[in-house]
């Protein structure tokens, strides 16, 4: 009992001491700032004091140190079905999860297609942006299931896999564009509207893949406009204010005039596409590079052979890879890459070269 009272008194003194020093926090010495010769008083198995890697900002974001190359190429990856089957146009959800793991380990970070085409790439210095796209709005991209009487996102659908991965690795990001077509995108007739809202609420994007998935080369200008505008109207009715402003060409086939796909109007609904995506077959140029054209952006289809081929390509040719300088206001490149840059595409951004 006596001992207990002594502890209480000690505790009260300690609390007072903490309160009085707490008023002038500047005087409280950080234990990590101790003089080097201060004898260590920690118990042997207490947590070691980890010195934070406090590189000054200028060093961390030094373009030369992180080998920034914002003239480099970017992969826009493309999946079709996600499910139980693996094939040329199909990926299992297990392999899809592995795709994300490989990208993460190799220093890729997710960005939205919109941020690429508006040249507003914002990822940490030293990392490479990558864009994820899904065509055809199939159920495996986004499925609701019932669990304990509640509706949940199927963890084995693309949205479920992406969401779980982003929770585990928040620095990877949660960005993807779902190119929808047909009258009930994601194919569950009684919940497709909720899914469109949820994709947007999660911070991901919807894209136009036309209502009927026809070969646009066979259509008149009015028919092309109808195919695109109807999809825009459908999304606007479900997610008011959301702009469906990127297009993945069905079958990768252009209309007779690409401008018909860029902008137009049908039955009072206007559309304008900031980006038009092809089906194949390689990375895109940097949005500030000569020859970059937002109306014909190639993509890389993810089946094992093709995916490995491009990952290896960037591993073996690191100078071809876009590497961020961490500052969206500057475009940093090694001096050797200067010829690749189209200065008219820089806009407000400052070009920063280094040797
Ligand atoms: Zn398609």
Main β-sheet, in a few words? 8 strands, parallel
Fill in the CATH topology of the domain at 74-320.
TIM Barrel
End-to-end distance? 73 Å
Average residue pLDDT:
88
Report the CATH architecture of the domain at 74-320: Alpha-Beta Barrel
Which regions are unreliable across 5 or more consecutive residues at pLDDT < 50?
Answer: 9-44
CATH superfamily of the domain at 74-320: Glycoside hydrolase/deacetylase
Strand residue percentage: 15-25%
Q: What would the principal axes of the Cα set say about the shape?
A: globular
Query: How large is the count of helical segments?
Result: 9
* Rg for CA atoms: 26 Å
Classified by CATH, the class of the domain at 74-320 is Alpha Beta
Helix content: 25-40%
Distinct small molecules: zinc ion
Task: Outline the structure in words.
- The chain has a domain at 74-320: Glycoside hydrolase/deacetylase (TIM Barrel).
- It is 28% helix and 20% strand.
- The protein is built from 9 helices and 16 strands.
- The strands form 5 sheets. Strands 1, 4, 5, 8, 9, 10, 13 and 14 form an 8-stranded parallel sheet that branches.
- The protein is globular.
- The N and C termini lie far apart (73 Å).
- Residues 9-44 have low confidence and may be disordered.
- Zinc ion (ZN) is lined by residues 135-136, 209, 213, 250.
